[in-house]
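Course assignment 3, question 2. Fill in each field.
Student: A.L.
Task: Predict the tertiary structure for the chain below.
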Amino acid sequence: MLQELIRFLAVAEKVVPRNSTIEVLRNLCIKDGYVLATDLELIARMPVPDNRSYLIPFGIIKTVLKSKPASIDVDLLEPNRIKINYDNKSVSFPRGEVADFPNLPEMDFQSIGEWSKEAVMLLHSQLPYLSNDELRPALNGVYLNQNGSFSSYATDGHVLRVISEMDPAHRCELQEYSGILPKRVIQLLPRLVRETVSVSFSEDYFRFELEHGLTLYSRNVEGTYPDFARVIPKEFASSVEVDVRRLRNLTEAAKAFANKATMASIFEINEDLLSIKVENNEEDVRWESSMTVDHLCGDGLRVGMNLGYLEKVLDGIDGKKAMWKYNDGNTASVFVETNDDTCSPMNLIMPIRLPKEEDEDG
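Answer field:
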């Protein structure tokens, strides 16, 4: 059972809660030929060659395995103790109640397909764009759409990132599905998936089947995902090409002088010049800079931006150049890479309200 426990330890470290007030959750459960770990939101299970039922405190088994033993053996002692023998050492502890450990979800699961490693990594790339607001749980996950194509959406309510092609190499086997995938399982999957992962869902859980019989169960995200289609313009009147690195550097420089609460700034596009201004009225500080832009098509622009949100958008662009598409300063702007890579995300950012120019002059 040593190799099975070693494999499972890496997963259990991400699942077993460190400071839970529910003591039984700080254990691994061996039951009916499986080892299990859970924090009630995420459940990990893997087969082991032991059909007995008992609990092992996670801290103890982690310490034992850290010593890299050549062998391990578990004795169930009378009346209520357990002893782990490893190499020429042993450790014993009280025997907990297996009946107190949460049961696996007993429900029917329906397959939504088999995802490739590449699709899993694209999902993982969406994590920085999720919200951490516990009052808006739907924004804590990635929205998936497998109806006709495989796309994903991530937003914190200010920035929306869309990957319209999650399977460019056509290695996934997909069933029609749309729903919200929880953040924690997206964080965990990249280190566990070698080639593919089978995914299914039920009314309350996702299920992920991996190598060595490892199965993850993740509780579904509650809530309704926002109607993102409403804020994505169907077409754009204007566009301009920007140097991503240069714009990122100026955004970072501007943040140092901006109001820390609002991170407000003013961007103006006029012919081949992009001007950035910060007006920090609280500290009576004014900052400005500019950079050249290329291939302006349509009208110029004056728009308010939150520098922190813009920085997040720019961090998600891998290419050297990006096309900034817009209609006016009151609607969303979109940044897309200038290459033809179908995996390249669309990055949408909402503007912030600016005072009218005549008010500023007054």
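Instructor remarks: The two ends are 78 Å apart (CA to CA). The chain has three domains: 2-100, 110-228, 233-361.
Grade: pending
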